[in-house]
Amino acid sequence: MAELSFFAGTMDCGKSTLALQMDHNHRARGRAGLIFTRLDRSGEAVLSSRLGLETPAIEVATDLDIWEAVVAHLTAGGRVDYLICDEAQFYTPGQVEQLARIVDELDIEVFAFGITSDFRTELFPGSRRLIELADRTQVLQVSALCWCGRRATHNARVVDGVMVVEGEQVVVGDTADPDHVAEVEYEVLCRRHHMRRMSSQAARAAAQSADVLPFDLDACPVPPRG
């Protein structure tokens, strides 16, 4: 029986690498699949890993009906044994429901990969719907690390060197700003340093020496809310 599987984690935990590896393993056994992604760091219609591996993919635009795309492929004589769906946090809830329908009505395996929560520690709509509908949700075991060495559990957005907790939910980082308005980066932090808005840059700035980071929580107070 086909299943909808959701592989979740923070940035830097190997989600895209696992997606590429899973596609390779299935193809090596003679199975045929389709790869979907959205807003990959390397550009449109590509699934890429931070390790430098990449493969062509179908870009999941907001108006793409994944169910219709798969049915059209089958109707044209194509074969589909499984789907690889990367960056699934950016899919709409309706598109996630289409993935569930593909599993239930076409008996096609769907492997979705994504980040659960955004830089504000709020669930992405796509990830929330996947958690609600998936047959199984698996947290990836490759632990990303905060700058302090603890296991990273939260994603942080850093704009011009300053960690922010407000703004649009989706702003793609690791890309050049065409208008040179702001430099947007992301990094992963443990909960204590995310709550204290203490990114690696802020930690270095607060340190008396560049070689001694402020691990003492007294040096990283929780900022006032509001």
From TrEMBL:
Protein's UniProt keywords contain Transferase: yes
UniProt keyword terms in alphabetical order: ATP-binding, DNA synthesis, Kinase, Nucleotide-binding, Transferase
GO cellular component term of the entry, any: cytosol
Organism domain of life: Bacteria
Keyword Transmembrane set for record: no
A molecular function (GO) term: thymidine kinase activity
Entry EC no(s): 2.7.1.21
Catalytic activity, reaction form: thymidine + ATP = dTMP + ADP + H(+)
SUPFAM superfamilies with a match to the protein in the record: Glucocorticoid receptor-like (DNA-binding domain), P-loop containing nucleoside triphosphate hydrolases
Gene3D superfamilies from the UniProt entry: 3.30.60.20, P-loop containing nucleotide triphosphate hydrolases
Database matches in InterPro entries: P-loop_NTPase, Thymidine_kinase
Annotated binding of substrate, by residue: V170, V171, V172, G173, Y186
Biological process annotations from GO: DNA biosynthetic process; thymidine metabolic process
Enzyme class, spelled out: transferase
Record: active site: E87 (proton acceptor)
Family to which this protein belongs: Belongs to the thymidine kinase family.
Protein name per Swiss-Prot or TrEMBL: Thymidine kinase
